């Protein structure tokens, strides 16, 4: 299957724009204490950043498990624990919120966990840019 370069470029821009917007909104919700909404927004941002990265290499991802496997494999290849475990960290976020509420643990841990995921998103963006630059040469 051939991928139309104009369509691909437009889709890459769309993924990046939406991912950045969701990430920003997610942290805003987090600061306002709306944990569940923040989790969903950041999840969406990570999903779109992963899809963008795959597309920058000519791969189209659609199914959730396919996206999870892609980022886990990419993290393994790069020996990047944060990247490899990013979806698992988000999976455990709800439980961590409950622990914070029940035990009075500090909120810092929640922010650190989501900062790790945000770092992965930014790495994916940067790597997508590198992939596109290399493809133009």
CA gyration radius, whole angstroms: 16 Å
N- and C-termini, Cα separation? 22 Å
Query: Helical segment tally?
Result: 7
Helix content: over 70%
What is the H-and-E element order?
HHHHHHH
The biggest beta sheet is recorded as: none
Structural class: mainly alpha
Strand content: under 5%
Indicate the overall shape: elongated
Spans of at least 5 consecutive residues whose pLDDT stays below 50 are none
* Arithmetic mean pLDDT: 90
The total of beta strands comes to 0
How would you characterize the overall build of this protein?
- 83% of the residues lie in helices and 0% in strands.
- The radius of gyration is 16 Å and the shape is elongated.
- The longest helix is centred in the C-terminal third of the chain and has 29 residues, at 108-136.
- The model has no long low-confidence stretch (mean pLDDT 90).
- It contains seven helices and no strands.
- It has 137 residues and is mainly α.
- Helix 1 packs antiparallel against helix 2, helix 1 packs antiparallel against helix 7 and helix 2 packs parallel to helix 7 (108-136).
């Amino acid at each position: 299957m051939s991928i139309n370069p104009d369509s691909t470029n437009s889709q890459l821009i769309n993924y990046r724009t939406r991912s950045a917007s969701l990430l920003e909104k997610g942290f805003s919700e987090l600061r306002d204490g709306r944990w569940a909404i923040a989790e969903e927004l950041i999840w969406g941002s990570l999903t779109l950043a992963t899809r963008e990265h795959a597309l920058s290499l000519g791969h189209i991802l659609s199914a959730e498990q396919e996206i999870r496997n892609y980022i886990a494999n990419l993290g393994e290849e790069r020996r990047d624990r944060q990247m490899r475990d990013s979806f698992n960290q988000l999976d455990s976020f709800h439980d961590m919120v409950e622990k914070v509420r029940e035990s009075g643990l500090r909120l810092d841990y929640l922010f650190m966990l989501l900062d790790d995921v945000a770092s992965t998103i930014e790495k994916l963006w940067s790597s997508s840019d590198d992939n596109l630059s290399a493809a133009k040469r």
